[in-house]
Each structure stands twice: as structure tokens, then as C-alpha cells.
Write a structure and sequence with these properties.
about 270 residues; alpha+beta; N-terminal domain of MutM-like DNA repair proteins; four-stranded antiparallel beta sheet; binds zinc ion
Length: about 270
């Protein structure tokens, strides 16, 4: 599933190619995504210029002047940027054709993505208004995490994956950050000390920034988009030896999500 770094890498790539370009045509082949694609999208967008591309949590926000195009990649979605218009494949649901000939194609086998149009402040959009602070900003730190976790009985991994607590930390990076912070994912949130919360907040930022910096976890390419799993220390490595101590990593389910950790290194 695309997480914050993948969405940010997508944003940067698209920003460098598409800002200043205008939509000439929008083809909606499948409108039934997680919520219906607005019926009038194909009529609204042509002629509008992309002024900037922002991100809030895992939402991409295309500033089109008179309104905002919102895109969430869901479970399996991605935006493929093609230099020329080509015939669509099976899961290519929406094509945005630009005035320079580029084709931005929304591909989503599981159709859990969202494509929406919103006028006004996009941060007031019902899907965005409840999102917690961005993990790469100063609004998210150890004290914030400590205060929000105080008295909470849920596992720390579930707490940091709650988008109302912090934006965009999904399963992969929650696993990775907890390993690096040496905190068990099933620790009750309220038992973490301020020091542990500070460590956790800074490693969350670290793992996200490293992943964005590499730009390699995810490629917004003409042909494919792929994670590079060698970057992960625990995610997807249940039963394999811990990189710190060599003991086999444990795999459990937490909130119905695969959770991998080292019993020996994480307390
Ligand atoms: Zn270990």
C-alpha cells in the first residue's frame, strides 16, 4: 500500500512535470472507486492549469485555481505519467490528458482510491479535516505523542497508525520505526515514557525522510511502480533473523495488520 513516502515521491515527481500545464481532456472509464468520481469532473477540468501540487497525509492536492483535485491512492492505486497517450489497460480507470501531451493515468486494481473535486480550502474537505499533524513537521514531536498516548490502552503501533493522531504513517513504516526505536509494537500506549515517545517521534521522521530521500521505495515511472523491500529491516521479514541480534523475528497480528518485531531487541 502506498504510504506517506510513496505519496511524497509521487508528488515531487508530478510537481516537476505538471505544474504550469493545463488539462485538455479527462476520460473517466470507471467512476466507482472508494467513493464515486464526481460526474462533472470531465467537464470541470479541461482548460484549468495546475498551479501546485501539495500533500496532506496520503492525499495529493492539485491546486487548479478554481478548485482542488484530490487523489488518494488507496490500497493499490498509482498515478502513472506517460509521455504519450497510449491505449488503456484493464485497471486504468481515469486518464488526464495535459496540454503538453503528457498523460496522467490513474491505475487501481482494487478500486480503493479516491479522486474528488473540492472548491474552497482543501483542508476543510471532510476526508482531510480530521487528519492529525504531519510527521515531518515540528507539530509532531515526543511531547505531542506522549500527551496523546497518555491513559490510552491501545497498542502503540495502532496509535501511530491512527491518521487522527499523526498523518500518513502506515503499516510498513510503523513496523520499521518501532524496531528502530526498540519499542514493542504491542506496548500499551499509556506506558511509554516521554523519552520513548521522543525517540519514537524522531525515528518516525527519520524512516520517512530516508525513504523519501532514496526515492527508490517507489517509482513513478512510465512502466512500473515498485517497492524495494531490501530497505526494510522488519516489514515482511517474519521468521527471518533480526539484523541486530540474529534471533528470528516474531510476526503477530495487531489491529488485523501484519506486525513484525524482535522480542529480544524491542521492549
Ligand atoms: Zn533483535
Amino acid at each position: 500500500m502506498p504510504e506517506l513516502p510513496e505519496v511524497e515521491v509521487t508528488r515531487r515527481r508530478l510537481e516537476s512535470e505538471l505544474v504550469g500545464k493545463s488539462f485538455t481532456q479527462v476520460l473517466v472509464r470507471v467512476a466507482k472507486l472508494r467513493q464515486p468520481v464526481p460526474k462533472d469532473l470531465a467537464a470541470i477540468l479541461p482548460g484549468l492549469k495546475i498551479r501546485s501540487i501539495a500533500r496532506r497525509g496520503k492525499y495529493l492536492l492539485f491546486d487548479c485555481g478554481s478548485g482542488w483535485l484530490l487523489v488518494h491512492l488507496g490500497m493499490t492505486g498509482f498515478l502513472r505519467l506517460l509521455r504519450v497517450v497510449s491505449s488503456p489497460g484493464k485497471h486504468d480507470h481515469i486518464d488526464f490528458i495535459m496540454d503538453d501531451g503528457h498523460l496522467l493515468r490513474f491505475h487501481d486494481p482494487r478500486k480503493f482510491g479516491i479522486v474528488d473535486w473540492f472548491t474552497g480550502d482543501p483542508l476543510l474537505h471532510p476526508l482531510l479535516s480530521g487528519i492529525g499533524p504531519e510527521p515531518l513537521t515540528d507539530a509532531f514531536d515526543g511531547l505531542y505523542l506522549f500527551n496523546i498516548g497518555r491513559g490510552r490502552k491501545i497498542a502503540i503501533k495502532q496509535l501511530i497508525m491512527d491518521s487522527a493522531v499523526v498523518a500518513g504513517v502506515g503499516n510498513i513504516y510503523a513496523n520499521e520505526a518501532l524496531f528502530r526505536a526498540r519499542i514493542r509494537p504491542d506496548r500499551i500506549s499509556g506506558t511509554l515514557t516521554l523519552l520513548e515517545c521522543s525517540t519514537l517521534a524522531s525515528v518516525i521522521r527519520e524512516v520517512l525522510e530516508e525513504s523519501i530521500g532514496e526515492g527508490s521505495t517507489y517509482r513513478v515511472a512510465e512502466e512500473s511502480v515498485a517497492y524495494h523491500p531490501q530497505a526494510f529491516k522488519v516489514y515482511g521479514r517474519g521468521g527471518k533473523p533480526c539484523f541486530n541480534c540474529g534471533k528470528p523475528l516474531d510476526e503477530i497480528r495487531l489491529g488485523n495488520r501484519s506486525t513484525v518485531f524482535c522480542q529480544n531487541c524491542q521492549k
